[in-house]
Design brief:
Blueprint: E1 8-23, E2 38-45, E3 47-49, E4 55-56, E5 61-69, E6 72-81, E7 92-95, E8 102-107, H1 110-115, E9 124-128, H2 129-136, E10 140-151, H3 161-165, H4 169-181, E11 185-202, H5 213-224, H6 230-245, H7 266-270, E12 275-279, E13 288-293, E14 298-299, E15 305-309
Parallel strand pairs: 1-12, 10-13
Antiparallel strand pairs: 1-11, 2-10, 2-11, 3-5, 4-5, 5-6, 7-8, 8-9, 12-15, 13-14
Length: 332
């Protein structure tokens, strides 16, 4: 039967405070000031417009999209694409050229331009096929395959993922290798800003612990007097995500996490932390539910999370024991 080591057990909870998913070719436009220290390179099936499927009425545009998944093609009808409720959609110039992933629109409704469109710098806009599907398509799951997970931090956190990806050799390799063998896929970058918080669990009822009172007091004081270093928070979060998904283009941490010998997150072992939880927020605006997957694991919603115990003692009780889905606790 497993036992708590301390009356006071501590864990690290890391949650997504901000996130962005963007096509890899548009990465250079991300300049929003967020601390994206962890990123993932992902893929999903390409979406394109069906040539000559566009029809316009005063109220909206209708069109057809198609998504290729290996040898099969899924057709998706978009019946009511509205750019603006006051716009006469018959006064739009529509052009969609090969490879049919972008719709170029020229607004020729002068009445609308002189009233509602006065703030526009141009009367020409473009719509990506994937964006139209996300906003106007049927509600569905949007599944991304995780190909690589990495980080950018620098000495004091001054470096972020967008800086690293500008000259990232692995990204260039994926762009070359993956696209050549998966022409039906589109590459995306998932940028994460993570915020840490300390989890605490106290058991003053059972009074059953393997540590002495002196060890308990020392453990409590050590944790309280040693704030976690942010670079180690990034290191352990990246390592946990890599080990969980085991992306095909990652090498480190795929088979050796957690590892108490690893210097990049040694503070958690020095302070004898119990547990790590990584929460990935997958809620976005649009008619879709983002899901992340690999050959070995997946996250289907924001209610799923990555969890690891940070100890090697098989007789030590985990802080997350109370959340076991089978209802059976280790001390029962």
């Amino acid at each position: 039967m497993k036992r708590r080591k301390y009356l006071s057990e501590f864990g690290l909870n890391v949650f997504t405070s901000y996130k962005t998913i963007i096509p890899v070719e548009h990465l250079n436009i991300i300049k929003d000031g967020h601390d994206y220290h962890i990123y993932s390179i992902m893929s999903c099936p390409k979406v394109r417009y069906v040539k000559d499927s566009f029809k316009a009425s005063e109220e909206c545009i209708s069109l057809t999209l198609e998504k290729q998944i290996k040898d099969s093609v899924e057709t998706i009808e978009i019946q009511h694409l509205v750019l603006d409720g006051n716009l006469d959609h018959t006064k739009l110039g529509l052009a969609c050229l090969y490879p049919y992933n972008k719709l170029n629109i020229e607004i020729n409704d002068n009445e609308w331009l002189n009233t509602f469109g006065r703030g526009l710098s141009s009367n020409k806009i473009s719509l990506e096929a994937q964006g139209v599907l996300d906003i106007s398509g049927p509600t569905r799951n949007l599944e991304f395959e995780i190909l690589y997970i990495g980080q950018a931090f620098g000495k004091d956190g001054e470096r972020i993922a967008t800086d690293r990806l500008k000259s990232h050799s692995t990204l260039q390799k994926i762009l070359t290798d993956y696209y050549s063998s998966h022409p039906d896929k589109q590459l995306y970058i998932f940028l994460f800003e993570f915020t840490p918080q300390l989890q605490m669990s106290f058991d003053g009822l059972t009074r059953i612990y393997t540590a002495t009172q002196e060890e308990e007091d020392s453990h409590f004081n050590d944790v309280m007097s040693n704030p976690l270093k942010y670079n180690q928070i990034i290191n352990i979060t990246e390592a946990a995500m890599i080990n969980y998904f085991k992306p095909p283009y990652n090498v480190n941490f795929v088979d050796n996490f957690p590892d108490e010998e690893h210097k990049g997150y040694s503070q958690y072992y020095d302070l004898d932390y119990n547990n790590l939880v990584v929460e990935i927020d997958l809620e976005f605006d649009g008619n879709f539910y983002v899901q992340l997957c690999s050959e070995t694991n997946r996250i289907n919603s924001s209610f799923d999370f990555i969890q690891y115990d940070l100890f090697n003692d098989p007789n030590r009780k985990s802080m997350c024991d109370i959340f076991k889905s089978d209802g059976k606790r280790d001390d029962m």
